[in-house]
Amino acid sequence: MTAAGDWIGKVGDVWAREWPRTERSFAHLEPLLRRAILSVAPDRGQFLDLGCGVGTTSAAIAAAYPDTRVTGVDLSAAMVAIARARHDAPNLRFVDGDVLDMATSRLDDLVFSRHGVMFFADPVAAFTHLRRRVSAGAPLVFSCFRGRSHNRWALELADATGQSVGDDRSYAPDPFGFADHAFVADLLARTGWSVESSEAADFDYVAGEGADDAAAIADAIAFFTRIGPAAATIRTAPDHARADLLERIGTRLARYARNGRVAMPVSAWIWTARAAGEPA
C-alpha cells in the first residue's frame, strides 16, 4: 500500500531519480490518454493535471491549447522540480503540494490525470473536493490500471517474489486501487460526476531496454528493484536470498525480451466524466 504521504518523501524521491524509466514505461499509454483529454477539452480555461509527475501530459496539453492555463500539481517536490526543468511555456506552471489543501481563485474547466488518482486515503472526500473546484459540466479524464490479471508485470513479480496477488475488488491506495470498474463508477456517481465513458486501453509496458536482450533484462531488473511492489521485498531480502530472488525475476522477464526490449502487456482504464449536480 502506498499512502499519499509517501509521495512527499521516499516514494516521490525514487520516482524522481528514476523518471526516464518511469516515463518510458508509460510511453505507449500517453498518446491514448492524451487523445481522450483532447477530445473533451475546451478551447480555453483553467486546466488541472492531478499527480503531474515530471510534467509530460501537462506540457502536451498546454502546447495543444495555448489559450488555456495548465497547472500540474504533484505531492513530490522532487518531481515538480524536474517538470519545471523539462518544460517551459507561458501557459504552464507546476506546483508541489496536496491539491486537496489548495485554494483556487477560479474554478477549473478540466481535470485530468495519468495514473495519479489511486492513492487517496479517502477517495470519496477527494473526488467530492475535485467536483467542488470545477465549473458545471467540466470534464474529468484519468487513467488507472485495470486488474492484476490484465497486467503481466504485477503477476510475474508477485509470482517471483512469493507475494500475495491481492484483491482488486476492495479499495486500497495503491496502483490497483481503481481496478474495480464497479467501484469507480459508483465513486464517481456518489461524488457528483456523470460518467461518459470508460475504455480499456491495452499497451506495452516497457520495463527494460539495452543493446541486447540480456542488457534489457538487466535494465528491467534494476527498474523493478526501485519501482513497484517488488522493490521492498528485494531491498529487504537477506544477502543469501537476494541473488536467487533476482534470478527468478530475470527468468520471468526473459519471457518478454525481444530485440533489446522487455515489453510486458498491460491494460488500463481511461475514464471520462463530467461534473453533474452537487455531490451529496
Automatic annotation (TrEMBL):
GO biological process: methylation
Domain of life: Bacteria
GO molecular function: methyltransferase activity
Residue ranges constituting the Methyltransferase domain according to the UniProt record: 48-134
Alphabetized Gene3D superfamilies for the sequence: Vaccinia Virus protein VP39
Pfam families documented for this protein: Methyltransf_25 (PF13649)
Presence of the UniProt keyword Transcription in the record: no
Key words, A-Z: Methyltransferase, Transferase
PANTHER family reported for this sequence: TRANS-ACONITATE 2-METHYLTRANSFERASE, TRANS-ACONITATE 2-METHYLTRANSFERASE-RELATED
Name this protein carries in UniProt: Class I SAM-dependent methyltransferase
Organism of this sequence: Sphingomonas hominis
